[in-house]
Structure formats: structure tokens, C-alpha cells
Input
Amino acid sequence: MGKMKNLKIDNLTVKAKDDGKIILKDFNLEIKSGEIHAIMGPNGTGKSTLTKVIMGDTNYEIVKGKTIYDGKNINKMKVSERAQLGIFLGMQMPMAIEGVSNADFLRSSLRAKEKDNFKLLPFVKEVDRYIKKLKMDPDMLNRSVNDGFSGGERKKNEILQMYVLKPDLILLDEIDSGLDVDSLKLVGESVMDYYEDKKPAILLVTHYQRLLDYIKPDYIHIMNEGKIVKSGDGSLASYIEKHGYENE
Ligand code: ADP
Ligand code: MG
Output
């Protein structure tokens, strides 16, 4: 069972550093520990930016507002500090890191998070179990991170990182993209297994109802032009599937 750690985003306005474009506008969202929220919405409305800003991506500047996590304003915290607090981002387009093996990457990420509590043997055993569970090729541990991995393999690799790091706040940005139906089911069920076990807070970004067949959100938010324009329960997704975002 994860600790009770809630996220509260309070009137957050964010711009891109390179061109100064305002992407999130007076954005508000509260996610309590144990809740699953899904954000849907057209392309280019700031969904990925939201997840990256919560993780501390320095390509974005916070113009105003607060990001409160576990009672602290984390606006100025580095990515590594946020990871230590238990925040995890499964990215829409995970990058390849040449020359760093997947196993080394996982080990140093976990070591950085756990510090003196890190133990090698349980780590190795766990990774082994997760690799089997996710039906990944064990050789992927020896290869460079995401190097030559297919879109779907990269997504599974994000879930593997999630399992290893055991976060309390999980941000999953289009984790369903690039997955075939079997992998989608596997990934969806794996996220739910983790959820049942640890009861983290989860924020999913998705375009499709099909992911929500496996991961059942408590709340769905429709985002447009940098803010949430409509919120509802799980039934909002099927409404959107039928009617599109046009009237929102
Ligand atoms: P979504 O995930 O909803 O499709 P994004 O958050 O990726 O949208 O992008 C929202 C808008 O902000 C887009 O117009 C995108 O081009 C722009 N944007 C995102 N990141 C940056 C950046 N680092 N620099 C400049 N513009 C950006
Ligand atoms: Mg996106």
C-alpha cells in the first residue's frame, strides 16, 4: 500500500521556454492517492506538456500557479527530486539512450531513489519476474535503453520502469499508442495489477476508450487549449467516442 500522497495543481500557467508560447492556462486538477484520472482531448492541447511539467521538464517555465505534491510546492524541484518523492512519467515517446544498457539504467534509477535501501539480489529477481510478466525478451535488459525497440516495446519498457521504481503518482502519456491488441491488454492489466497492489494515484492521457476497457478511471477530464473544459465519471469516455470533442 502506497503512502497517502495527493497532487493538487492550482491555477498553473506554463509557457514553452523556446518560443514563449503559453501552453497551460490557469490549469486546475486534484488527484488523490488511490484515484485514477484520465485526460482526453484533441492533439496539441497541452496534455503531454501537463505530464512533463508535473515531472519537472525544464523546457517549460511556470508563469504562475502551484504544483502541490504530498503537501509541498514542487514547482522548483528537479526531475530527480520528484522521482524520489515517488512521481513517475511513462512518456508518449520514450527516448533511446545509446550506450546505457537497460539493466544499468533500471539499477541506477532505483539506486538513486532507494539510496542505502537498495539491494541488488531482490532487484535482479524482481526484474526477472517483471520481464516475464510483461512478455518482454530478456535480451532487452542487455541492449541500450529503447535502442532499436519498437513503439510497443518502448511502452512495455516504461511499464517495466514503473514496476521497478514503485511510484506513488503515475503519469502515463498515451501508453496505449503503438501497442497491438494483445500488448494493450497486457499493459492495461499490468497497470491495474500494480494499482490493486499499491493504490497509487494515476493520471492517464489517452485518445481511446479501448485502454479504458482495462484501466477504469474514477474521473475523466476533457482538455482543450490548455485547460480542462469538462469533467465527468467513466461514462464520459464513451460519450466522447460517439460524439467527438466538438461540443466541449
Ligand atoms: P498534446 O499532448 O495535447 O497533443 P502537447 O502538450 O504535446 O499537446 O503540446 C501542446 C502545444 O504546445 C502544441 O502546440 C505544441 O507544439 C506546443 N509545445 C509543446 N512543447 C513545446 C516546447 N517544448 N516548445 C515549444 N512548443 C511546445
Ligand atoms: Mg501528447
The pocket of magnesium ion (ligand 2) is lined by residues 47-48, 92, 173 (CB under 6 Å). The mean pLDDT is 94. The helical segments are 47-55, 79-85, 102-114, 120-133, 151-165, 181-198, 209-212, 235-243.
